[in-house]
Amino acid sequence: MRKLLTIFTILASVSGCANLDFDKKIPFVYRIDVQQGNVLEQNEVNQLRPGMSRREVQYALGSPLIIDTFNEDRWDYLYRMEPGAGKTEVQQLSLFFSDDKLTEIRGTVRPEDNPKQETTQDSKTVVVPYQEREPEGYLSRLWRWITFKKKEEF
């Protein structure tokens, strides 16, 4: 019995160190979608133009994921989407500045030369009528529940 327990312990510890993707191969196992980094939308990247200041770029894309410590004139935007089932999507955008102006754009996501004009949809405004309500706290609701009284009886 002691040998069996020792063998089981050794096998359990060795299998824990193995880099096996059993969870990807087992059917009917739910895996979550994992998103990391800056979401890069094409319409936001299309706003980039050479000569933009850092503040304008940050307004269009948000804060960069990586600002190089040794080269402050380079900003990197990275995005990784690993769906539970399917292929991993990786997007990368590197921006280079000179004298606080955008000079170069590199990466897998680039601004389009002729961006499509987005059609603006008519917006609708819904007006909700105001209803006068008396504020009611937890204690008054609890008291009403204990005493079995309706709100109108108070």
What does this protein look like?
- It contains 5 helices and 5 strands; from the N terminus they run ααβααββββα.
- The chain has helices spanning 2-17, 22-25, 42-45, 54-61, 138-147, and strands at 34-37, 66-67, 74-82, 89-98, 101-107.
- The termini are far apart.
- Strands 1, 2, 3, 4 and 5 form a 5-stranded antiparallel sheet that branches.
- It is flat and about 75 Å long.
- It is 27% helix and 21% strand.
- With 154 residues, it is α+β, with helices and mostly antiparallel strands.
Element layout with pairings:
Elements: H1 2-17, H2 22-25, E1 34-37, H3 42-45, H4 54-61, E2 66-67, E3 74-82, E4 89-98, E5 101-107, H5 138-147
Antiparallel strand pairs: 1-3, 2-3, 3-4, 4-5
Short descriptors:
27% helix; alpha+beta; 21% strand
* SS-based class: alpha+beta
Number of helices, counting only DSSP H or I runs of 4 residues or more: 5
Q: Which percent range fits the helix content?
A: 25-40%
Largest sheet: 5 strands, antiparallel
Tell me, what's the shape? Answer: flat
Instruction: List how many beta strands DSSP finds.
Output: 5
Q: Give Rg in angstroms.
A: 29 Å
Tell me, rounded to a whole number, the average pLDDT. Answer: 81
Straight-line N-to-C gap: 73 Å
The fraction of residues in strands falls at 15-25%
The H-and-E topology, N to C, reads as HHEHHEEEEH
Instruction: Return residue spans where pLDDT drops below 50 for at least 5 consecutive residues.
Output: none
